Amino acid sequence: MKDFVKYTLATLCGLFLAGILAFALAILAIAGMMGMENNTPAIQPHSMLRLTLNGILQEDAPEDPFGELFGQSYPVLSQKEVMTAIQAAKTDPDIKGIYLEAQALSGATPAMLQEIRECLNDFKQSGKPIIAYGDFYTQGCYYICSVADKIVLNPQGQLTWCGMSSQPVFYKDLLEKIGVKVQVFKVGSYKSAVEPFTGTEMSDANREQITSYLNDIWQTMLADVSQSRKIPPARLNAYADSMTAFRPAQEMKEMGLVDTLSYMDGVSEMLRKATGKKKGTLPLVSIKDMATTAFNAPKEGEKIAIYYAYGDIVDRKSEWSDHVIDTESTCRELKKLREDPSVKAVVLRVNSGGGSAYASEQIWHEVKLLKATKPVVASMGGMAASGGYYMACAADYIVAEPTTLTGSIGIFGLIPDASQLLTDKLGLHFDVVKTNRHADFGTIARPFNTSEAQIMQNYIQKGYQLFTARVAEGRDIDIHEVQEIAEGRVWTGRQAVRIGLVDTIGNLQAAVAKAAELAQIKKYHTVSSPLPAPWYENLFDNSRKDYLNSTLQETFGTYYVPLTNLVQIRQMSGIQARLPYYPNLTN
What we know:
The protein is 46% helix and 21% strand. By secondary structure, the protein is an alpha/beta fold.
């Protein structure tokens, strides 16, 4: 028996030590892999750049060596890497064309899709072909792929072209079932971010603004596809009404939506022919490798920094914060750019629906200080609304995509009242002794009384007045004109140009060119800010968080954001400058 215990313990110790050794070797292997990634990949002659339209599309994506090593359930596609890779491929003599592989993208706003499409359209000026293939084209992927020289659909495949819709989720009845009410304070008849907590359907004002920007976005998509496919917009609109997704692939060809039908082996032959490579393996270059090649290329000329600000605007990061714009780190990084004499201009790349009004004001102040030392141009991505617009309005110049969602100049506060849950359902009772009238202001034991509610509404009103004053100052517009176009209303980028909230329509490259013009420099290169954190920082926390987030997003699709917002409301600061977005805008 003694020998049995001894050998068992020895075996367990051996397994434990072997596990530690295996883990250490895995870490070293990943570190080696990361070290190799820091080197510029070799691009073989007769290569095709492969852009797989699959996963979560977001402004940028952190390094995830474990995800790359073991595979991700739902990959993250970096908009920054995609744009950089396409631009580099345009001038790289070894890249003979682009292969678009259509699958499914989530988290992609219309403006993000449009920016990729514009970049591909610019690539075509090189004379190199773009070939797209899909077993199933979602509408967003088809919008991107419609720019291709040849669109290929699997003979048994499908193509969705059905128009756009918006379907907000309302939580009011759900919350009341568990004894929770939300006390709302707001300014702006269009500021409808509070509606999911106060009603069960859209207000007339919200329906009006969604109808306006949804139709404007759809008309843009119709015009773009019409130009590429040589199909009149009216006919494309009729196709959308016919629900193409369940019609035979042959009909998609007859309609002119695709050029040919083929299985994957036929597509491989098309790619081989496009590259001129007659034998051997067809080199397909990934977006990450192409982007790395561009990032590591020698830099010449003056430096223009692109500061990427994307995600919710928050006072501070929480444990589960994911891609947020927090006050402390954002202001710190902008201050570094302000004090760096080698940076001649800054492009503030904003992709945010807003968040904390307090944080937005602090970042606005830092942008204003930055503008006093060097030119600042705001480049609006998918969204730059409410708090996102608050940040951008301090810039010297604002550039937006036609389908960017912006404006939403308004303020609101959401204060949950859980007193019914606590007392009626959980049996908790409260009593109080206080020395002054408002000593128990904000207690969880009861909702606000009339006096306290008025205090909150006055505070919200002052926040709104400050917001509109910042816009009036930054845009050099009379305060009364700002108030007429504010009221929390959401505008597309094209609409925002007409009312003076945006200077011009353009992409990130147009914003960089404008920054160079304002800085009076002709030869320049760009650098990204802030620098990504090393992959090994918070390795396990980030892996756990990213895994859960990607799994939830894959499961819930367009409902991911509205459902997580229900959870995050408890983490929000009381006063919000947030876009009434995330209404499940399908494209």
